[in-house]
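ok so for the tutorial part 2 we go from a plain amino acid sequence to predicted structure tokens. step 1 is just haveing the sequence, like this:
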Amino acid sequence: QVQLVESGGGLVQPGGSLRLSCTTPGFTFSNNWMYWVRLAPGKGLEWVSRISPGGGRTVYSDSVRGRFTISRDNSKNTLHLQMNSVKIGDTAVYYCARGTAIAYSDRGQGTQVTVSS
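step 2 — the prediction. this is what the tokens look like for a chain of 117 residues:
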């Protein structure tokens, strides 16, 4: 059974930083592209970032490029998202997901990130 467990969410002020993590028991983590996606209030799922199986390729949406950094540790089956210079518009439930180079599928239960002063 595929499991993805996100953590690290919380309340942060605009301009602050937060680091999300995702642990992935139950599948061969190092074989998969991994994604972060988010669901903001009143909006649909938005793809945020993805990273190649070996970690050498990363892609970001225009809304987070230059502020967020995705990374992975294949020895620990763990995915991270470093969020810097956060904005109120980054408020959302953040999910990690596994997938291919062009699409994601299974995702976890999510972790809430709230950006507010």
